[in-house]
Amino acid sequence: TGLGLFATKPIKKGAKIVRYFGPLLDSRKKKDDAIENKYLFELNGRWTIDGSVRKNVARYINHACRPNAESDVMPRKRKVVIRAIKNISPGEEINYDYGTDYFKAYLKPIGCKCDACERKRKKKRAEARAERLRLKLKAAKKALKEAAKLELKAKETLEKSFNHGLNGNSHCPTLNGKLLNGLHRTSARRVSATQSAILPKPRDNQDRQSLASA
Asked: Environment class of residue 52 by beta-carbon count within 10 Å: exposed (0-12), middle (13-18) or buried (19+)?
């Protein structure tokens, strides 16, 4: 993509826009056949137009995969004319398809910069971003689901352990069972201590004997 050529006035479909011109190169001559540049326009197997001269305004027309103009090649007259294939408005860029060979040699390695290809790349980038976001949300949803499963499993395990402890006995004591047995023993000690506190203490040997005989 170079400078570009833009319409300064309305151009109707089919109208001649500009001629692509330059020195004619004869492929039968070694000197001419040795010339290489990006502005060579091949007319046929023998004749080629070297459009690298600055006066060739058509050299500034950029390639487009969906152009608004085309090259009208006239080998017998040894000339090329650029014609509009659509109505072109003032300020609109003029472009035409350079052809498969030129595209593969010069444009494909660096990527076509025409509007159609730019829109296509932009669309692909947007689709790629959307796909990455979709996968990210999917992974997050899966992680939340797994976390919920683990939480439910932990809750069930805790409830099972608690219920098993409540139903435990002395033969198969559990943590809760041990705590309950401990509470039972503590309560028994408290009852014994209470009973001891209620009974009067003997003051002398006679009282002890009286209590013993009683």
From this structure: middle
Of the pLDDT bands very low, low, confident and very high (cuts 50, 70, 90), residue 200 is low
Residue 213 CA: distances (Å) to CA of 30, 98, 204, 207, 209? 148, 132, 14, 10, 6
17 three-state secondary structure? strand
25, 35 contact by CB (below 8 A): yes
Is-contact 43 78, C-beta < 8 A? yes
Number of H helices, E strands in the chain: 5, 9
Rounded to whole angstroms, the Cα distance separating 175 from 154 reads: 18
Tell me the two tokens of residue 152.
Answer: 């439910």
Token pair of 169 as six digits:
């006995």
Q: What average pLDDT does range 19-28 have in this prediction?
A: 94
**DSSP, residue by residue, 78-128:** TEEEEEESS-B-TTPEEEE---HHHIIIIITTT---SHHHHHHHHHHHHHH
Q: Measuring CA to CA, how many Å separate 64 from each of 1, 19, 99?
A: 9, 18, 10
Confidence (pTM): 0.56
| Rounded alpha-carbon distances, angstroms, from residue 14 to 88, 120, 180 | 10, 28, 102
Residue that has been written with the tokens 């790349």 in this structure:
121
Question: What are the backbone angles phi and psi of residue 188, rounded to the nearest 5°?
Answer: -65, -40
